[in-house]
Amino acid sequence: MNFAYTETQQLIRKTARKFAEEKLAPSSIERDEKQEFPHEAVKELGTLGFMGMMVPEKWGGSGLDTTSYVLAVEEISRVDASCGVIMSVNNSLVCYGINEYGTDDQKKRYLCDLAAGKKLGAFALSEPEAGSDASNQRTVAVRDGDCYVLNGTKNWTTNGSTADIVLVMAATDKSKGAKGISTFIVEKGTPGFSVAKKETKLGIRSSDTVSLSFVDCRIPVANRIGEEGEGFKFAMTTLDGGRIGIAAQALGIAQACLDASISYSKERKAFDQPIATFQAIRFKLADMSTNIEAARMLTLNVCMLKDAGQPFGQEAAMAKLFASKVSVQSALEAIQIHGGYGYVREYLVERYLRDAKITEIYEGTSEIQRIVIARSLLK
Ligand SMILES: Cc1cc2nc3c(=O)[nH]c(=O)nc-3n(C[C@H](O)[C@H](O)[C@H](O)COP(=O)(O)OP(=O)(O)OC[C@H]3O[C@@H](n4cnc5c(N)ncnc54)[C@H](O)[C@@H]3O)c2cc1C
Questions:
Q1: Is pLDDT at 2 greater than 70 in this prediction?
Q2: CATH of domain 7-119
Q3: Which of 233, 292, 345, 357 is deepest in the core (most CB within 10 A)?
Q4: Where are the chain's structural domains?
Q5: Which atom of ligand 1 sits closest to the CA of residue 364?
Q6: Ligand 1: does its nearest atom lie under 6 Å from the Cβ of 157?
Q7: Is 245 near ligand 1, meaning CB less than 6 Å away?
Q8: What is the CATH number of domain 233-378?
Q9: 3 pLDDT higher than 80
């Protein structure tokens, strides 16, 4: 394994860090408090080429590798994890899904604008009764001539109220279970499609999480991705890649915890000396740093497998499982190192904990990642 970054990867990292510190940091606290979506920042991420990083240039993307993408998501999430997930969903779920499984016509009509950051995408698999048990789809799509008629409700859709395009999974043949699900590209403004409820969240509060409603919503057959019945496989393979983005988001939050803890422990004095002189604090920093580096190695490992065209589902689950755990642990330790100041809004570490927790839940909970890993070990 060679983890030395190429010149391009180093440039991506530097550009993402500069953008995050200059453009995201000044407004991140206010946006978190007000649950405000970063419209301007998302446009600028598009201009930087960060919204379709792995899409070929031919289809409006930046034609970069997965490592470059991970470096960018990590740097953005280090400052603003809400922006990290907005970017991750558009890149690794929506753009990846259309690029990998869409027709040339779908790529022309949708991917070019999504990858260039001119449009935003969302991925709607989860439902009130179908989270971990994602094949239990109650949303149905019934064929009627050259359209499907979509009815149902989707829960927890990231980018849902802002998105121009939503990839919707729905049952086209309930009797076939997971093999009776199909994927559709649904445009904002399609009659019968509406945003039902905006969630008030613990963390990643300036990302947009909503439930979506579909009532007799007519979707052209030309907007179905792949064949009928291939939707569950589409969702699961797309989520394998998505988990790499969430591992990178978790890494970014963990790195922010370590950076904040190092500077605070050098400044804060107790018993007439910086708390960084106490072995108890130094050991916490050493453990945080070691765990973060291990999570980074797992994440870079899966990037290399994916870019080499090797199977990577098990490794993606491992990277997300471990990085999300390290993220939550790092945030807890960062709060401990900050003492009482860690518990209040004045310092950012309390937000890091709120932001970190979701990485253990979405795109498959930690329990589901363990199921994926064990299934792969025992096959
Ligand atoms: C902020 C946010 C953003 C999200 N964004 C999106 C999005 O953009 N698109 C989308 O489709 N979804 C999205 N989700 C949904 C997310 O992926 C689900 O919440 C997640 O998969 C868990 O599903 P659930 O909430 O229904 O929990 P459940 O599936 O009900 O799980 C509850 C608990 O039971 C455990 N559990 C369930 N089954 C098993 C099992 N077989 N073995 C062991 N333990 C099990 C789970 O691990 C969990 O601890 C988002 C969620 C949130 C909160």
A1: no
A2: 1.10.540.10
A3: 292
A4: 7-119, 122-229, 233-378
A5: 21
A6: yes
A7: no
A8: 1.20.140.10
A9: no
